[in-house]
Write a structure and sequence with these properties.
Thiolase C-terminal domain-containing protein, about 20% strand, Thiolase_C_2, two-stranded antiparallel sheet, alpha/beta, 9-stranded mixed sheet, Peroxisomal Thiolase, Chain A, domain 1, Thiolase-like, about 375 residues, acyltransferase activity, 13 helices
């Protein structure tokens, strides 16, 4: 395989102007605000963009709205992991000469939108899952979490999920943009209302309005960027099912393949990673992902995160923005993993800033634990 390490870099990132509860802005408004903010962060303009990437809407719609005529366009949409996967696709497109400045955007009025997309009654999920009560992500992921508890112990799994929720909230309290910053104790977690057993309220991600964008460009163009470039070392992507009922193993995601592949392509190991940005649609997603990526073995994640190891001051920095659990989650959260990773590597995170991180692993999960994209980023 061709060595593509440090052939492209992320040079600009930002959210839309307002995130959280923003009832007067559309999906496209969030896309556009984030796009212009990220380009400003990069020291570029919309006229520099010739590659356009998004998920959840068509680039026909987005390009028209932004006034872009791209020479490369990509609407890969496999859930919240899409925006991590777009990094690899942009890297391939730039190295192939199809574009040299790629803009990747996300925008979703997940909390305030007035319409909800309907499903196709002819799809397998509509025929074979919905009639039996599989009505959305909390139910689907809860079944997977219940299987994990059956295999490894209910109280053991529950404490692992609690550790993730409480630690992530502590990071959110250091992030001015986080939606939920109230104190959360373990008692608060355990006493929160049930959503879909075994999930309490604080096991579940937020539902917010938000947009995000990043700019990725060639190594040559990155030299002239406004800020220090964040290099892409390696990436991998895959998916192994769509319906939760067809998931090969409810305790293992396809990150078991993408994690090792991304690390190998990057030329680094688990021990080299300074920050892990792990998609946290639910607390269980984090446990299953840590094991699948190989940071710990099957059934070991609750011990791995024990004693607030992933909280501020712990020795395994993870989800330092406050995550989808406490910072923001507009529907497809993967974009915001990238924003925090870049900011941490550039030393821009204020009170939550880590001590000189050099390498970050990002892992996005999409669908019903269906797809993953894994990327390793670095800074000189």
């Amino acid at each position: 395989m061709t060595d593509l390490r440090k052939t492209v870099a992320i040079v600009g990132v930002d959210e839309s102007d307002e995130i959280g509860k923003v009832p007067d802005k559309s999906n496209l408004t969030h896309h556009a605000e984030a796009a212009y903010n990220a380009l400003e962060d990069a020291g570029m303009s919309i006229k520099d963009v010739n590659g356009l990437f998004t998920a959840g809407t068509s680039t026909l719609n987005l390009a028209e709205y932004l006034g872009i005529e791209p020479s490369f366009t990509d609407t890969t949409a496999v859930g919240g992991s899409s925006f991590i996967i777009h990094i690899a696709h942009a890297m391939a497109a730039i190295n192939a000469g199809y574009c040299d400045v790629a803009l990747v955007t996300h925008g979703e009025a997940g909390r305030s939108r007035r319409s909800r997309p309907g499903g196709d009654d002819a799809d397998p999920g509509s025929q074979f899952e919905t009639p039996y009560g599989f009505l959305g992500a909390p139910i689907n992921y809860a079944m997977a979490a219940r299987r994990y508890m059956h295999q490894y112990g209910e109280e053991y799994g529950r404490q692992g999920m609690a550790e993730v929720a409480v630690a992530t909230r502590k990071w959110a309290q250091l992030n001015p943009k986080a939606y939920m910053k109230d104190d959360m104790s373990f008692d608060d977690y355990h006493n929160s209302r049930w959503i879909s057993e075994p999930f309490h309220l604080f096991d579940c991600c937020l539902v917010t309005d938000a947009g995000g964008a990043y700019v990725i460009t060639s190594a040559e163009r990155a030299k002239d960027a406004k800020k220090k470039p964040v290099w892409v070392l390696g990436a991998a992507e895959s998916h192994d099912h769509n319906l939760i009922s067809q998931m090969p193993d409810l305790t293992r995601t396809v990150a078991k393949n993408t994690g090792p592949a991304a690390l190998e392509r990057s030329g680094v190991t688990h021990d080299d990673i300074d920050l892990a940005m792990i998609y946290d649609s639910f607390t269980y997603t984090v446990l299953a992902t840590l094991e699948s990526l190989g940071f710990c073995g099957p059934g070991e994640a609750p011990d791995f995160v024990a004693n607030q190891r992933t909280a501020p001051g712990g020795d395994f920095a993870m989800n330092t923005s406050g995550g989808g659990l406490s910072y923001t989650h507009s529907g497809m959260y993967g974009m915001f993993l990238v924003l925090e990773a870049v900011r941490q590597l550039r030393g821009e995170c204020g009170d939550r800033q880590l001590d000189d991180p050099k390498l970050c692993l990002i892992n996005g999960t999409g669908g019903s634990l269906s797809s993953t994209g894994t990327t390793v980023l670095a800074i000189d």
